[in-house]
Amino acid sequence: MLEKTDKIWMDGNLVAWDDAKVHVLTHSLHYGLAIFEGIRCYDCKKGPAVFRLDEHVKRFFDSAHIFNMEIPYSHGEIARSILKTVKANRLRECYIRPLAYIGYGVMGISSTGSAIKVSIAVWPWGAYLGEDGLKNGIRAKTSSFIRGHVNSNMSMAKVSGYYVNSQLAKQEAVALGYDEAILLDTEGYVSEATGANIFIVRGGVIKTTPLTSILEGITRNTIMELAGEMGYEVRQERFTRDEVYIADEVFLTGTAAEVTPVRELDGRTVGKGKPGEITKALQDAFFHAVKGKNKRHERWLSYI
Ligand code: PPE
Fold it and tell me: Can you give the pLDDT at residue 16?
């Protein structure tokens, strides 16, 4: 269950958690067009810090731009309001969910003239795929559902409506006893998980899906940068599900998922069936970076 916090930012004001309500005729609730972000704040030695705030706010505005949604605040105002909301809730670690949606006022597909509303909620959120998953790896299943065509889903945007596809895939995987689903793209190549990007390691080379059918993950970018610093080659290149079967290591990346190893896909053990060396090294480097333990990555932190 969601753990309640004190305040939610709604259209410029901090309101009590229980008062952060919308009308049932809110346009986005019916037609699925709302854009959002998922950001994490970590407890660092010098205090709580939001990880890669600017990049998340930038993607928030990019998502809105793709859908011709005019957010009635500036980049700076949203960034400052995120920090203010975390501070108001006195949390040292939390997940942050900014959302821009089409409010109450008109019905029908066209939302021209409707106000764009913005909210920012924060709450404590532990390991997305479980503590055991983070430590020992998860079991995944290739989904029978595929990611939308690139001319159907504008995957560069993080849009609420896309997650109905993710929910179909997740429901199927969980019903069959797996932790997570891996979706293929319209051509049959590996795309991403329901809410995270995918990486494979084979013969010391790291591969991740190129930017076509996937969300351009900020954690994906972080991992590519950390891997580069550690001397690994990272290729953004298409790969097939059988290459995942024979990969030495597989892991997922996302703000919520962080760096989660995958130990099985479709009943095939990945590598040795436990997190591989490179995965573990990247996971360590990631947690060092988000927790402010590496000076080089301080630029990614915005202290509260
Ligand atoms: N792909 C998808 C489809 C996705 O939803 C996410 C984030 C990513 C990749 C990774 O993006 P990034 O967080 O920038 O590294 N998914 C968010 C929502 C998860 C949820 O269940 O809600 C997240 O991780 O915050």
Answer: 98
Query: Does residue 29 contact residue 72 with C-beta atoms inside 8 Å?
Result: no
Q: Separation of 255 CA from ligand 1 center, angstroms? A: 6
| Residues contacting residue 58 through CB under 8 Å, at least 6 positions apart | 75
pTM: 0.98
As a whole number of angstroms, the distance between CA 301 and CA 289 comes to: 9
For 28, list phi and psi in degrees, rounded to 5. Answer: -60, -30
Per the annotation, the verdict on 158 as an active-site residue is yes
CA dihedral of 81, 83, 87, 90, whole degrees rounded to 10: 120
Question: What is the predicted pLDDT for the residue at 156?
Answer: 97
pLDDT of residue 56: 99
Q: Which of 7, 117, 141, 158 is catalytic?
A: 158
Mean pLDDT of successive 10-residue segments in the chain (304 residues)? 96 98 97 98 97 98 97 98 98 98 95 93 96 97 97 97 98 98 98 98 97 97 98 97 98 98 98 98 98 96 97
Q: Which helix (H) or strand (E) holds 122?
A: strand 116-123
Residue 100 near residue 33, CB atoms below 8 Å: no
Q: Is the CB of 218 under 6 A from ligand 1?
A: yes
Of 197, 198, 225, 253, the one to substitute when testing ligand 1's pocket (max ligand atoms within 8 A of C-beta) is 197
Using most ligand atoms within 8 A of CB, pick from 2, 179, 219, 258 the residue to mutate for ligand 1.
219
Q: Which helix (H) or strand (E) holds 180?
A: strand 180-184
Residue 88: CA atoms inside 13 Å, Cβ hemisphere, count? 20
Name the one residue in this structure whose structure tokens are 């998502």: 63
Q: Where are the alpha helices (DSSP H) in the chain?
A: 27-31, 53-66, 75-88, 131-136, 163-175, 218-229, 241-245, 277-290
